[in-house]
């Protein structure tokens, strides 16, 4: 299957193409990293070859083969194209168009917003990986070359909830408490935790614990 159209399509429209070996677009401004030193040619359906560079390309093409190579999977049934990520989560569904092609619209503004959110989450991820180390010291690790592969960080506007709770003082617990139970399951302590910011794999935001007072087993 190859997407061929004589009409000018919307700039955000992408055709899912099984005959395309690589993703292709005529919008250079959409690319985050561009290496102009690499030159290659694209072979067309009529055996003609053209230079794989230029802004005159009307159709944006998503290579199904390249998506599969990255671990994605594809199903085509009931005149619907479905794309699943490596975790088998549905990321795209589009119906068969009148010209027997599969087309989807990708809004570039939304992509930029998602990228900004992703970068912010990445900063907090490094904060957690280094045991809630503050961003000033994280940048010192970068400046002094103490860690390789660590990006520079901007000071966030938000405060880490874990750091805020961890720095709050409280009275010490008693080292010894009177035992009120004389056998297993005579007294069971329970506690409900949540709601958590991140859902579990099953979509849950609460957890509950049970601790037997006599055996101290959970």
UniProtKB/TrEMBL annotation:
<protein>
    <submittedName>
        <fullName>Retrovirus-related pol polyprotein from transposon TNT 1-94</fullName>
    </submittedName>
</protein>
<keyword id="KW-0645">Protease</keyword>
<dbReference type="InterPro" id="IPR025724">
    <property type="entry name" value="GAG-pre-integrase_dom"/>
</dbReference>
<keyword id="KW-0547">Nucleotide-binding</keyword>
<keyword id="KW-0540">Nuclease</keyword>
<dbReference type="GO" id="GO:0006508">
    <property type="term" value="P:proteolysis"/>
</dbReference>
<dbReference type="GO" id="GO:0003964">
    <property type="term" value="F:RNA-directed DNA polymerase activity"/>
</dbReference>
<dbReference type="GO" id="GO:0004519">
    <property type="term" value="F:endonuclease activity"/>
</dbReference>
<dbReference type="Pfam" id="PF22936">
    <property type="entry name" value="Pol_BBD"/>
</dbReference>
<keyword id="KW-0067">ATP-binding</keyword>
<dbReference type="GO" id="GO:0046872">
    <property type="term" value="F:metal ion binding"/>
</dbReference>
<keyword id="KW-0460">Magnesium</keyword>
<keyword id="KW-0695">RNA-directed DNA polymerase</keyword>
<keyword id="KW-0808">Transferase</keyword>
<feature type="domain" description="Retrovirus-related Pol polyprotein from transposon TNT 1-94-like beta-barrel">
    <location>
        <begin position="14"/>
        <end position="55"/>
    </location>
</feature>
<keyword id="KW-0378">Hydrolase</keyword>
<keyword id="KW-0255">Endonuclease</keyword>
<keyword id="KW-0239">DNA-directed DNA polymerase</keyword>
<dbReference type="InterPro" id="IPR054722">
    <property type="entry name" value="PolX-like_BBD"/>
</dbReference>
<keyword id="KW-0233">DNA recombination</keyword>
<dbReference type="GO" id="GO:0006310">
    <property type="term" value="P:DNA recombination"/>
</dbReference>
<keyword id="KW-0479">Metal-binding</keyword>
<dbReference type="GO" id="GO:0003887">
    <property type="term" value="F:DNA-directed DNA polymerase activity"/>
</dbReference>
<dbReference type="GO" id="GO:0005524">
    <property type="term" value="F:ATP binding"/>
</dbReference>
<feature type="domain" description="GAG-pre-integrase">
    <location>
        <begin position="112"/>
        <end position="168"/>
    </location>
</feature>
<comment type="function">
    <text>The aspartyl protease (PR) mediates the proteolytic cleavages of the Gag and Gag-Pol polyproteins after assembly of the VLP.</text>
</comment>
<dbReference type="GO" id="GO:0015074">
    <property type="term" value="P:DNA integration"/>
</dbReference>
<dbReference type="InterPro" id="IPR039537">
    <property type="entry name" value="Retrotran_Ty1/copia-like"/>
</dbReference>
<keyword id="KW-0229">DNA integration</keyword>
<keyword id="KW-0548">Nucleotidyltransferase</keyword>
<dbReference type="GO" id="GO:0008233">
    <property type="term" value="F:peptidase activity"/>
</dbReference>
<dbReference type="Pfam" id="PF13976">
    <property type="entry name" value="gag_pre-integrs"/>
</dbReference>
